[in-house]
Design brief:
Layout lengths: L1 E5 L2 E3 L5 E8 L7 E7 L6 E6 L5 E3 L7 E6 L4 E6 L8 E8 L13 E2 L3 E5 L2
């Protein structure tokens, strides 16, 4: 199993980034997928999740600004981040879970990527 994130970088406040997570080694379409982030000195938090039926769940802090999507044909998860704020900075990880009840709880997910760094500064 492999999850490889990309698309991170530095962006100004108010700017946008699109993260991608390429998955391999498992049947992607049958797994819940999610994005988590961790800022220095803080616990990892769930940002956005997408179930196998396409339903989504977002942290309150990103609702209306971030959009999670998946392309099952390409085995890829995406996170479109708009209107970014300084508090959005951190290491972003994608995660996969076969049976997930709490979509934004990290304990529900079995597989993790190494992460991609996002910096928000002017």
């Amino acid at each position: 199993v492999q999850l490889v994130e990309s698309g991170g970088g530095q962006v100004q406040p108010g700017g946008s980034l699109r993260l991608s997570c390429a998955a391999s080694g498992f049947t992607f379409r049958t797994y819940f997928m999610a994005w988590f982030r961790q800022a220095p000195g803080k616990e990892r938090e769930g940002v956005a999740a997408m179930a196998t039926d396409g339903s989504t769940n977002y942290a309150d802090s990103v609702k209306g600004r971030f959009t999670v999507s998946r392309d099952n044909a390409k085995n890829t998860l995406y996170l479109q981040m708009n209107g970014m704020k300084s508090e959005d900075a951190g290491m972003y990880h994608c995660a996969a879970g076969r049976f997930v009840a709490d979509h934004l709880s990290e304990v529900e997910y079995n597989y993790w990527g190494q992460g991609t760094q996002v910096t928000v500064s002017s």
